[in-house]
Write a structure and sequence with these properties.
72 residues; alpha+beta; 29% helix; globular; Type II toxin-antitoxin system HicB family antitoxin; TTHA1013/TTHA0281-like
């Protein structure tokens, strides 16, 4: 089973695009013109990151970053 990782999604003025990343997977990130495209690209990047780790015998990190909870 693939772990469920927290995803950060944000607009970068410097890069002029949406960026999505997975803090638990180090350098796993993607960018695109829309938020939906950035998440779709990130899904591919995550699959490749995890596949490479498995093929090379590296441990798969447990999900540990969580989204902040806000009081109502």
């Amino acid at each position: 089973m693939t772990p469920h990782y927290n995803i950060n999604l944000f607009w970068s003025n410097e890069d002029g695009c949406w960026i999505a990343d997975v803090p638990d997977l180090g350098t796993c990130s993607a960018y695109a013109d829309t938020p939906v495209e950035a998440i779709a690209e990130l899904q591919i990047a995550m699959e490749l990151w995890l596949e490479g780790a498995r093929e090379n015998g590296y441990p798969i990190p447990e999900p540990r970053h969580r989204t902040a909870k806000f009081a109502a």
